[in-house]
Specification:
Elements (H helix, E strand, L loop, with lengths): L7 H18 L19 H24 L4 H22 L4
Length: 98
């Protein structure tokens, strides 16, 4: 589903309409898979900081999971390089950090 919104009020209206749809159709919208980003061109510092916090939390969780496994140093470095750092480099390429 692709939806273009112009304001926060439109998003709130969309949430109300989706909740009505959910009740009528006995289905549920998965907000955890929702990706929203502004197309206005102006940057929002609060959004960027929240995004960076979420990315750091995701990397910490991934690292914590792999540290619990009993792996050799080579295997740990390979996992870090291929799984964790690849996603981090992609994010850093498109995001400006403070």
């Amino acid at each position: 589903m692709l939806i273009f919104l112009n304001s926060v009020e439109e998003f709130q209206t969309l949430q109300v309409l989706l909740s009505i749809y959910n009740s009528a159709s006995n289905s549920k919208v998965n907000y955890h898979r929702l990706v929203a980003f502004p197309l206005s061109g102006s940057s929002n510092i609060c959004q960027r900081e929240i995004f960076i916090e979420v990315v750091l939390q995701r990397i910490q969780n991934s690292t914590r999971v792999h540290l619990q496994r009993k792996l050799f140093v080579y295997a740990r470095s390979h996992i870090a390089k291929s799984l964790i750092l690849s996603s981090l480099w992609h994010i850093l390429r498109v995001t400006t950090l403070p």
